Amino acid sequence: MDKLSIEVVPAGEGIRILRLEGPLTLRGLAEFQSIVRDGEEPITIVNLSKVPFMDSAGLGALMGMHTSSQKLGRKYAVVGASDRVRVLFGVAGIENILVTYDTVENAKTALTEPRA
Amino acid sequence: MAASEPAKAPHQLSINTPNGQTNHVTLERDRYALGRAATNEFSFPEISFLSREHLAFEREGTNWLVRDLASRNGTFVNETRIAGAQVLRPNDVVRVGPLRIVFDEKTANVDKVVFVENPAVRIAATTSTTLKGLLSDEKEIQGSGHMQALIRAGRELAGHMPLEKLFDLILHLSVEAVGATRGALMTLEDGELLVRATRGYGFRISSHVRDLVLKERRSLLIRDALSEQALAGWHSIVEQRIRSMLAVPLQTEDRVIGLIYLDSPHHIHEFSREDLNLLTVMSNIAAVRIENARLTELEQAERVRAKELEHAALIQHSILPGNFPPFPHRKDFELHAAMIPAREVGGDLFDFFLLDEDHLGFVIGDVSGKGVPAALFMAVSRTLLRATAQHHVSPGECLSYVNGSLVEQSIASMFVTLFYGVLDTRTGEVQFANGGHNPPYIFSADGKLRSLAEKSGPMVGVIEGIEYGTFTTQLTPGEGILLYTDGVTDAMDKSEQFFGEERLEQCLREHASEPMDRLVHSLHAALDDFSQQAPRFDDITVLALRYC
Predict the structure, then answer these.
(1) A59 with B459: Cβ contact below 8 A
(2) CB–CB contact B463 A67 (8 Å)
(3) What are phi and psi of B90, to 5 degrees?
(4) b vs e for B387-415, b when ≥16 Cβ sit within 10 Å of the residue's Cβ?
(5) Which residues contact B314 (CB under 8 A, 6 or more apart)?
(6) What's the CA gap between B197 and B212, in Å, rounded?
(7) B486 reaches A (C-beta below 8 A)
(8) Which of B158, B398, B411, B455 is buried most deeply by CB count within 10 Å?
(9) Which pLDDT band holds residue B520 (cuts at 50, 70, 90)?
(10) Any chain A CB within 8 A of the CB of B457?
(11) Is B104 left (phi over 0), alpha (psi -120 to 50) or beta?
């Protein structure tokens, strides 16, 4: 199976985008977690548009990001999830828990908007 | 191990000259003097700041000192003028006029060896040999000194040691065998040369030499190789003078795995043809030894892994119920379950237990991750759920409690998906809660299916304070419920197609009338048929329960 590669793209204004390519599974877990952990930026956008599928460990990594963001007062968004990955979010019951947007631009706008 | 084992990291000086070059010197003697006079080890006649004999670096026990030799302009350590001598610590900077000398500079090692494209290597002046040529003429290895070096190498390389230590020892033996001043051992990893051990610094090796060694397996003895280089640069100090060099392949029977490069200032020691022959044979012994050491390390890692998987499988098996049929005296329901572990052991779990005479609890779950951590998490989840269920709480309350306990233990990013149902064996009513697990199927003997799609909440063990709801469904006699983990639907064939829900439903329809054990086996057989020899990434678990 293909390997996961992660490209970190600074997107200005305290935002970084993690561009994932390949399946997010147990194999790529450690790298993903350490990149998420090491970020200084208050906003992280995870682009999954090139992630064909993920396993339970990958889901766990996203949930780990969700809970640590809450603890640290940071923001994150998951964008570009494929249908297959969306179904997985649904089955796992986290489709309304994970912060998801269709596109990077939508996520950026929503996350940088001052709170009402 | 013999006494001649290399000492741990030898001390070094990094000398920054006024023209911007840095020369690295490994401190191997007991004293190095520096000054304008040509008699100094480091001689800089051009620098008028210096006295004829300005300062000396001296070994004192395990320490190194810098001693000012009553110079006119003084010697500065970390910008403070010293009187007499001072002990040096790593990264101390000794300054004398335009010269800056750093003791044991802590820098990355990446630039220790540089390959240069257009050096003044006069290949005409080289002597070259190959291992093959040497082995066909045994007379080539002559002289008692060389024989002893070989015997010593054979003896010292025989012991077991980690690879890094082995690289160091091989280089040490090579340097000593031919009396070289400096050396580097490099290995080929994915087509790239990696520096594994060095004595000395600042190697500039011709890429042409490298290619001859690696591609043509030639052993090279080169004279005057860097003469033009030396003239172009700052040539006052010993390090930059004309060199005599040896470069030989590290080769096993069928391939080249790296190279050893040694050199020496020409005027101190010029290598001979015999040195070249000796080093060629030695490097062959060394290469075989490296290959063996690598295999040993790989085997060890593989053994550790296998042991760990064994542990994980053991945990899993000791936790999951194993005796079927589990309740042979009961005629009001029929139950069977089976798990086929993945090679890496996922964290699938299933369980069932009578809460009282009329209530059967049944569980399926899938822990994120693999191996021992997943197996342990699975064991904890199963025990928590079973213990909570005994208190006759509703399935939703049960998951809420298990969730709270698992979140509290907060195991980084691990979770378990859980489906927990309770069958009332008098009425066929099933109360259930689903925390992020695949929806089960209700099936009738004639092959009609429906999905139990109600969700109580997300997977269990991640988010604090979730209240999981309880749902109810009704089974009529003859209807059954099939629970499965995503190992079923995510099973792949050789072309990486998933088994998927459709094939699962098809298979369930076909075997819906069979006894539960037959149904479970048929499903596993269909999966085996589908995936053939394709690797299995996840545990495959199925639990089937029929209300009679």
Answers:
(1) yes
(2) yes
(3) -55, 140
(4) ebbeeeebbbbbbbbbbebbbeeebebbb
(5) none
(6) 21
(7) yes
(8) B398
(9) very high
(10) yes
(11) left
Q: Could you write out the DSSP letters of every residue in B417-458?
A: EEEEEEEETTT-EEEEEEESPPPPEEE-TTS-EEE-----BS
pTM over 0.90: no
- pLDDT tens for residues B41-90? 888 888 888 999 999 999 988 889 999 999 999 999 988 899 889 999 88
Facing residue for B412 by CB, picked from A55, A64, A93: A64
How far apart CA B119 and CA B352 sit, in angstroms, is 76
d(Cα B194, Cα B136) in Å, to the nearest integer? 31
Instruction: Give alpha helix (H) positions in B233-366.
Output: 273-319
* Residues B392, B397, B403, B406, Cα dihedral to 10°: -30
B170 phi and psi angles, rounded to 5 deg = -60, -45
Cα angle, residue B458 at apex, residues B454 and B459 outer, rounded to 5°: 115
Highest-scoring range by mean pLDDT, A9-18, B12-21, B480-489: B480-489
Judged by CB atoms closer than 8 Å, whether chains meet at A94 and B459 is answered as yes
Q: Which residue has the tokens 């204004």?
A: A13
Task: Give, in order, the Cα–Cα distances in Å from B132 to each of B220, B286, B292, B501, B507.
Answer: 14, 16, 21, 62, 64
Q: Residue B442's beta-bridge partner residues?
A: B450, B481
ipTM of the complex: 0.78
Which residue of chain B comes nearest to A59, CA vs CA? B368
Cβ separation B459–A57 shorter than 8 A: no
User: How many contiguous H segments (helices) and E segments (strands) does chain B have?
Assistant: 11, 29
**The CATH number of the domain covering residues in A5-112:** 3.30.750.24
pLDDT at B106 over 90: no
Structure tokens at B125: 């002046």
Per residue in A55-101, pLDDT (tens digit) is 888 888 899 899 889 888 899 999 999 998 998 898 888 988 899 99
